[in-house]
């Protein structure tokens, strides 16, 4: 059974067990992209099999031990998504996985159906490329931990975006819902949001790119997710006083693992204004360990 709406408020896609968010390709109504958010109590463990998908275990808050087919990886993690870049673990398809946390925490499992079985690996925090994108009120930070050119996967592409309160992110609106060689990738995408501060909120927009396409204008709060099978997506707007985080999980059928986008023709001009404006002085929120300011 598929979800009734692309906007999934916090708790509405829980599995009734340890996953506070559980999005499978079947539930999303597409072929590749998955996302789970796992909450572990102190001293607890969780076991799963990766099946026909590759996965990245990404700490959102806390650290954990990940064992993949008997091979251990220790993830230091972080206090929160607003506190720093994190290390992570790559899990191949057809693997047996156990997660355990001495102190407890919250962990994203970003997944994609795939064909190749790559080796299990550790991704160190110091190797995560941190990008500052846009300027002025469009300034945001992108942690490219599993971007196409940063970390090898078969189909999975995943990045984190952190936006200062009051700024517009995922702007100008763009799309990647059809294959155009050298211009646009076909990628299913999940946005998972965390908002800093009590009663924090933001807004997210998806505009149809075709007749009957995805149309969303959602007030997003901590723990919400939005499914984007198609359409021009953006902006994601962080309310003043509330920094916004979102995790992007993408995968698709293209012959190359690449993130190619087309900007909405009505708004593409905004990129040309960025060189004239300063970067938001609140950025970067943080750098990867070992990077110089």
UniProtKB/TrEMBL annotation:
InterPro entries: Deoxy-glucuronate_isom_IolB, KduI/IolB_isomerase, RmlC-like_jellyroll, RmlC_Cupin_sf
Gene Ontology molecular-function annotations: glucuronate isomerase activity
Gene3D superfamilies: Jelly Rolls (2.60.120.10)
BP terms from Gene Ontology: inositol catabolic process
Keywords attached to this entry: Isomerase
Name used for this protein in its record: 5-deoxy-glucuronate isomerase
Source organism: Streptomyces albireticuli
Taxonomic path: Bacteria, Bacillati, Actinomycetota, Actinomycetes, Kitasatosporales
Gene name linked to the record: iolB
């Amino acid at each position: 059974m598929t979800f009734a709406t692309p906007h999934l408020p916090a708790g509405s896609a829980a599995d009734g067990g340890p996953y506070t968010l559980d999005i499978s390709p079947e539930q999303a109504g597409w072929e590749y992209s998955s996302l789970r958010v796992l909450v572990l109590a102190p001293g607890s463990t969780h076991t799963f099999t990766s099946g026909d998908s590759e996965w990245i275990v990404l700490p959102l808050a806390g650290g954990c031990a990940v064992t993949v087919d008997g091979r251990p990886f220790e993830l230091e993690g972080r206090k929160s998504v607003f506190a720093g870049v994190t290390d992570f673990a790559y899990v191949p398809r057809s693997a047996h996985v156990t997660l355990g946390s001495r102190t407890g925490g919250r962990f994203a499992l970003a997944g994609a159906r795939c064909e190749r079985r790559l080796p299990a690996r550790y991704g160190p925090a110091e190797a995560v490329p941190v990008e500052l994108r846009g300027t002025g009120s469009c300034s945001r930070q992108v942690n490219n931990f599993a971007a196409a050119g940063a970390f090898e996967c078969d189909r999975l592409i995943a990045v984190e975006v952190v936006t200062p309160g009051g700024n517009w992110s995922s702007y100008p609106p763009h799309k990647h819902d059809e294959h155009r060689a050298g211009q646009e990738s076909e990628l299913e995408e999940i946005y998972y949001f965390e908002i800093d501060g009590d009663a924090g909120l933001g807004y997210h927009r998806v505009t149809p790119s075709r007749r009957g396409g995805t149309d969303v204008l959602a007030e997003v709060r901590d723990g919400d997710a939005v499914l984007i099978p198609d359409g021009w997506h953006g902006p994601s707007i962080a309310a003043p006083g509330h920094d916004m985080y979102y995790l992007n999980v993408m995968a698709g059928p293209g012959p190359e693992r690449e993130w190619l986008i087309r900007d909405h023709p009505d708004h593409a001009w905004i990129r040309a204004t960025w060189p004239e404006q300063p970067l938001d002085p609140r950025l970067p929120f943080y750098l990867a360990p070992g990077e110089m300011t």
